[in-house]
Amino acid sequence: MTPFRIKLNSSQSIFDQVVFAATKSILGGALKPGEPFPSVRSLASDLKIHPNTAHKVVQHLIQERWLIASPGRGTVVAPPPKARSGDRQKLLSQEVEQLVVEARRVGATLEEVTDSVEKHWKSLDQLKVVAGDS
Asked: Tell me: the pLDDT tens digits for 59-74?
């Protein structure tokens, strides 16, 4: 059984939606390091998506180091990286730039962006509490 759901949104690709949902489940603690990740077949069946899309999602998550594929063990959630502060800054740089550009595009203020980031940060913390990670 897949520990996350997606609500299909026509403005975003199914691939992107599934990757986001899986990543959010890992960050939120619903999927813990070392736990098995659903197989391509069960992912496709549970989410009602094409098996090729499910395969691409799993391969992408492996490539991005969210998952580890082990022969005989299957695909499992990867442990969190041990990044130093400078490494974290490098990893976040592109995503933050995209967020800032999009926020400016829609006319958001810095305060609105900060409030939104804080709200979403806390919602992930709440997912961890619900998942029993407190």
From this structure: 999 999 999 998 888 9
As a whole number of Å, the end-to-end CA separation of the chain is 24
Mean per-residue pLDDT, 12-24: 91
Q: Please say whether the beta carbons of 44 and 51 come within 8 A.
A: yes
| Residue 68 CB-density burial (10 A; 0-12 exposed, 13-18 middle, 19+ buried) | middle
Q: Which domain holds residue 40?
A: 14-77
State whether 115 and 69 are in the same domain: no
CATH number for the domain that contains residue 72: 1.10.10.10
Token pair of 24 as six digits: 């959010």
d(CA 130, CA 25): 12
Pick the closest to residue 64 from 81, 40, 49 (CA basis): 81
